[in-house]
Amino acid sequence: MIFASDNWAGASDKVMAALTTAARAGGRAYGGDDLSRGVEERLSALFEREVAVFFVGTGTAANTLGVSHFARPGGVVLCHRHAHINTDEAGGIEALGGCKLAGIDGRDGKYTADALAARLEQFPPGSVHHGQPVLASISQLTELGTVYTADEIAAIATIARNRGMAIHMDGARFAGAAAHLGVAPADLTWRAGVDVLSLGGTKTGCIAAEAVVFFDPARAADFAYRRQRTGHGFSKAWFIAAQFTAWLDDGHWLDLARHANAMGARLAAAIRSSGRARLAVEPAANEIFAILPEDVAARLRAEGAVFHPWSVETLAPEDRPSDGETLVRLITSFQTTAEAVDEFADRLAA
Amino acid sequence: MIFASDNWAGASDKVMAALTTAARAGGRAYGGDDLSRGVEERLSALFEREVAVFFVGTGTAANTLGVSHFARPGGVVLCHRHAHINTDEAGGIEALGGCKLAGIDGRDGKYTADALAARLEQFPPGSVHHGQPVLASISQLTELGTVYTADEIAAIATIARNRGMAIHMDGARFAGAAAHLGVAPADLTWRAGVDVLSLGGTKTGCIAAEAVVFFDPARAADFAYRRQRTGHGFSKAWFIAAQFTAWLDDGHWLDLARHANAMGARLAAAIRSSGRARLAVEPAANEIFAILPEDVAARLRAEGAVFHPWSVETLAPEDRPSDGETLVRLITSFQTTAEAVDEFADRLAA
Amino acid sequence: MIFASDNWAGASDKVMAALTTAARAGGRAYGGDDLSRGVEERLSALFEREVAVFFVGTGTAANTLGVSHFARPGGVVLCHRHAHINTDEAGGIEALGGCKLAGIDGRDGKYTADALAARLEQFPPGSVHHGQPVLASISQLTELGTVYTADEIAAIATIARNRGMAIHMDGARFAGAAAHLGVAPADLTWRAGVDVLSLGGTKTGCIAAEAVVFFDPARAADFAYRRQRTGHGFSKAWFIAAQFTAWLDDGHWLDLARHANAMGARLAAAIRSSGRARLAVEPAANEIFAILPEDVAARLRAEGAVFHPWSVETLAPEDRPSDGETLVRLITSFQTTAEAVDEFADRLAA
Amino acid sequence: MIFASDNWAGASDKVMAALTTAARAGGRAYGGDDLSRGVEERLSALFEREVAVFFVGTGTAANTLGVSHFARPGGVVLCHRHAHINTDEAGGIEALGGCKLAGIDGRDGKYTADALAARLEQFPPGSVHHGQPVLASISQLTELGTVYTADEIAAIATIARNRGMAIHMDGARFAGAAAHLGVAPADLTWRAGVDVLSLGGTKTGCIAAEAVVFFDPARAADFAYRRQRTGHGFSKAWFIAAQFTAWLDDGHWLDLARHANAMGARLAAAIRSSGRARLAVEPAANEIFAILPEDVAARLRAEGAVFHPWSVETLAPEDRPSDGETLVRLITSFQTTAEAVDEFADRLAA
Q1: Burial of B121 (0-12, 13-18, 19+ CB in 10 A)
Q2: B116 preceded by cis ω (within 30°)?
Q3: Probe site for chain C from A68, A89, A100, A313 (most C CB atoms < 10 A)
Q4: Count of alpha carbons within 13 Å of D202, Cβ hemisphere only?
Q5: Is pTM, for the whole model, over 0.90?
Q6: CB-CB under 8 Å, A225 with D72
Q7: In this predicted complex, what is the ipTM?
Q8: Does D300 contact chain C (CB < 8 Å)?
Q9: How far is B313 from chain D (nearest CA, A)?
Q10: Which of C175, A150, B95 is nearest to D71 (CA)?
Q11: CB B10 to CB A4 under 8 A?
Q12: Per-residue pLDDT averaged across D34-39, rounded?
């Protein structure tokens, strides 16, 4: 009953097999190998256009470098108030990009185009004091397990582009979002206006496989230097390429995500019908936010369930727990079994 | 006949087996797992004192973060003019630590305590204009494949410490140096005055396994934040821990290094006796710098040998190639076979 | 009728006379001159303890360098949501200190110790993801022209210190606050827990005279390097020292502030009694925030009054203008005449 | 007999008069005033093209911000080994621009186009490890008091431009160089290929008046944000504008420089004919480098002469002092009197 995070999971057998094969051979260093080039081709095919791909080892690296690439002096990055880049990356964009992060409020982990437009009013064009907005970032999945539709993304991107801003997508759980929405990856990204994507494999069955994907390769100029000087250029880059190769083969990435999502739905259904807990947010994929009586949460933990408490600040005031209740996050993964979910359901309802 | 670099090699079977086992299980994220804790214990045992260990993914990350940790305003980092941190890391320490790098001349890739003392005279104490020396870095192996003895390290460290500086060792090939010298790791590091070590497994049989090792854990305060905000904190940290576990088990790391060194010695002997080439530097381990007639180098490459040209700037003027000659670097690894070396030797002498 | 800002004013005659005298003589560079040393002594006397003083040229420099001096990796700086450092310095602390700024809500431009404590809960100790709070900053005067009492400062400082944080005061208008409160400077600063003060002369009668004042000189170590590498170390430092000398002589600084405050009070009284406008915030010194009918504001501007519109976001929702009204900021200075205020009052009431 | 530095001098009476007048009036903040706009027009006229002008308070600020404006990831800035930006600015460009500084050797404080080309070979195009050259900087006057001719500048700029680099000129003593060469400022700058100039008034009769001058205003985009976030945007910008106005009026800047240069020539002549000392470098303007017997230097100091010792590293080996000799720097200024020079000459020859 481990629902702590999808980064507590191991790696899929197919991913490991590909990695083991690659490790026997080795290859040219720093991405000069065939596997690395192959992944760029596969992602170009997947996204239906030529993309520039840069491997890094963590999602924080992908976000921090991908966003910082669009930094300018006095730069301001707009994102949801509770975006991972704003609350969980130890100030990476501030430190590496020298940017200010400006949070936007919004229910269920999402912000709207209107909310972005309103926030931008606080940064009047040309004011050297306030700084200049350079990028809007959205998370897909969001930090509350919800998704943006392609139309919602396009609306946000239009507002941003009108101010000359770039659009970044934190896709640490992009696979889960794509599996849920059933929409072509291109429609969720560049066709909706996204310039740069942090594409995460780690939370969906890889060990450490993240990529910064630029939808216009011309805008990736100098990014290789940016990556290298921050120590994110792996000499044995085939190690990430091998993982991505297996991950992308035959839709393995979507299969992994679909399993996690199915387990998430199973868990959500159990909570809905439990009579003892409720969903704080309607889930789209593998992140479930639930409100439980504190004693029930304590009992479940004592019985072996592992899940994190979550800040009630992330919810709108009207959605927050009452006295005696607690907000928790439960995450399923490609390794989560139906048995584990059912055991949790049984114990919850007991 | 691949002698391009030890980062062109794959990973050892033992390392991969450990990684595969770990990947089946997964574990607590961000280093909370048992394997991660275990590696810290093993390294404490290896170094004969309690050490603080921080995994990162690349040697550039280890160097950049480890050195930047000692940065102060106006900080100056002293190192050999051709140190990897000065010539091959795309300005990482400048960018992340805000420090100036001040190169020191020295034959065979090494600098002396006297040369350090002379260089320090250009940074008079208290001069806000010149900046303040904060750290001296040495590479073990050096970038020319030579080693510092424990006494040489201690002499450098004494000069540095008298100016209040920290001492960093770039140990991307520490295993090769330790195997060659046959000296206890503690004697090569903290007993000689080293404060922080970039310990590299990647070039000696791992996929991507590097660690910043602080010999005084109290001096590692805040380093976890420094690592996290630069995107170097792996969620599935067991992925590095598993590699290091196998690497350290039963002296596997030294066995891997000894093999690479033996192949290096075999290659060096072949060059010495070839009648067609000569060693530019007397090698200690697995990096061989040779001077060949240009036509011989071209022929060997045409016959399938892979090796890099090297800048003659790295040699003292009296050691440089004559007209018609070229300086090349050949590196052996744990995967190099005697057959490959012998084939090279035969073709060289032909 | 110039009420745009106190930085639209010139410089006091006494300040200019001192500067002219100093400019005839010149002096040792980089603060080695007698005037510079003298200012440090005077400020030590004024603050009733030995302080370390570093001149810089702007308030943004003082704030950015003074706060960044306490930066640590993953550092978070807490301040009022509308603090100058958060909204008007183009991301200086983010860029130079690599810190995240976390805004705190609070009425009338002030935040409370309780609000600070609540905000700190979002940064749990030891969480490398969220980062670590390193400093709390307060503005005295605040950006809404109000003041903190010594007790309020002490309460905030206690909360901050319990988390190991430093306390910074943005004293761009410290003179106005001190003149209003009639409290010893020491009571408003170090005795209440302040570690570092940005002391501003520019808005109170100088040309460009700002200082970073450390109340514990030992904590100023390396600050001279920090200042120099950012280009804030003036070679002719006597140019700032001469201004501060005249400014501090015979309480000139307080006289200048008292005049500005008196003009502010006269202006506030006029607004209160006008029947056409109201105060948005009860003023303490020379910053007056008023709510006017839009047509009245337009008429006043057409008649020659100069004042800035102000963001209604800075007010609590219940304090904001109604439809057809506008929020404006009016600032008086040492140069403001009673005649100008009275003319404004007459035109407002007309 | 103060020959310590031209930044020990005061300010010219005309400059102070203009400043005093401006200080009575005050004006719109942050460069919105008439004086500030006027200086931009005057400099456009002086340089015979439209330029973009940004005031800052120190030469280090001008250099650091002006050079950093051209920074890119992995950026390398090439300059003379002993350039002020490399040896006297506490690592400002490293810290603010994240660039590596790569020094070039060259006699008499100058480097040649050929030397630049040779140094660039160490940064092969496209190598992410070595980084990418982004800018070449030259000092005019150089740090050894010599000048580059327009042709020499053009030759350097051609090499730099062929690698896509920008060209910066450190003109802390540009007035002295222009006065000596008698060449139009345009010929020494943009017509020879210079993109950005640090134009210094401080060392030639101002208190604190420096400007970053972009010869193509389009390339100055975002510079205002860069200046603001580092605290270099003065609210009372007229304070610098007033100084520059007087400085530029009727060629006052060249008159000030010519006097300093004449005093430098008088001092040089005295040294040449003294029989006790010799010039280490043939001077062009107001910086005189002389080699004296150590006992003579000591005696002169005891008799009241003030001058700095200088590092012999700045000289070519064949130009260095012999045993018992010392290298010193003597600088004249607009305030230096012929009497002071003659007294020094008499005492030297005594």
Answers
A1: exposed
A2: no
A3: A100
A4: 29
A5: yes
A6: yes
A7: 0.97
A8: no
A9: 9
A10: B95
A11: no
A12: 97
Q: Which residues of C touch B128 (CB under 8 A)?
A: 30, 224-225, 227-228, 233
Q: Each residue of C174-202: pLDDT tens digit? A: 999 999 999 999 999 999 999 999 999 99
Identity at B336, one-letter amino acid code: T
Render pLDDT for C55-100 as a digit per residue (tens, 0 to 9): 999 999 999 999 999 999 999 999 999 999 999 999 999 999 999 9
For D350, what's the count of Cα atoms within 13 Å in the CB-facing half-sphere? 13
DSSP secondary structure letter of residue A137? E
Residue-wise burial string across D150-168, b where 16 or more C-beta atoms lie within 10 A, e elsewhere: bebbbbbbebbeebebbbb
Half-sphere exposure of A227 (CA within 13 A, CB side): 30
- Strand bridging mode C75-80 / B325-331: unpaired
Give A 42-81 residues with CB within 8 A of chain D: 72-75
CB atoms within 10 A of CB A213: 28
CA gap C216, D295 in Å, rounded:
43
User: Side chain identity at C279, as an amino acid letter?
Assistant: L
Place of tokens 């999402």: A110
- The C residues from 199 to 258 touching A (CB cutoff 8 Å) are none
Give A176 to chain B, closest Cα distance, Å. 18
Residues of chain C with pLDDT under 50: none
pLDDT at C60: 98
Q: Concatenate the DSSP letters of all residues of D175-214 into one string.
A: HHHHHHHT--HHHHTGGGT--EEEEE-GGGT-SS-EEEEE
**Cβ pair C4:D232 closer than 8 A:** no
Torsion-angle region of B75 (φ positive above 0: left; ψ -120 to 50: alpha; else: beta):
beta
Contact B128 C74 (CB under 8 A): no
- Single-letter amino acid, residue D230: T
Share of chain D above pLDDT 90, in %: 100
Between strands B166-171 and B132-139, the pairing is parallel
Q: What angle do CA B167, B172, B178 make, to 5 degrees?
A: 80
Q: Token pair for residue D150?
A: 């327009």
Which of B232, D98, C75, B92 has the alpha carbon at shortest distance from A61? B232
CA B128 to the chain's CA centroid? 32
**Distance between CA B324 and CA B326 in Å, rounded?**
7
Q: Do D225 and A30 touch (CB under 8 A)?
A: no
Question: 3-state secondary structure string, chain B?
Answer: CECCCHHHCCCCHHHHHHHHHHHHHCCCCCCCCHHHHHHHHHHHHHCCCCCEEEEECCHHHHHHHHHHCCCCCCEEEEEECCCHHHHCCCCHHHHHHCCEEEEECCHHHCCCHHHHHHHHCCCCCCCCCCCEEEEEEEECCCCCCCCCCHHHHHHHHHHHHHCCCEEEEEECCHHHHHHHHCCCHHHHCHHHCCCEEEEECHHHCCCCCEEEEECCHHHHCCHHHHHHHCCCCCCCCHHHHHHHHHHHHHHHHHHHHHHHHHHHHHHHHHHHCCCCCEECCCCCCCEEEEEEEHHHHHHHHHCCCECEECCHHHCCHHHCCCCCEEEEEEECCCCCCHHHHHHHHHHHHC
Q: What percent of chain C has pLDDT over 90?
A: 100
Q: Which tens digit of pLDDT belongs to each residue from A157-200?
A: 999 999 999 999 999 999 999 999 999 999 999 999 999 999 99
Residue C287, strand partner residues: C331
Q: For residue C16, give Cα distances in angstroms to C206, C242, D10, D16.
A: 8, 9, 15, 9
Q: Which domains does chain B have, with CATH numbers?
A: 12-250 (3.40.640.10), 253-349 (3.90.1150.10)
Q: Which amino acid is at A79?
A: C
Give CA–CA dist A247/A208, Å, rounded. 12
> CA C166 from chain center: how many Å?
18
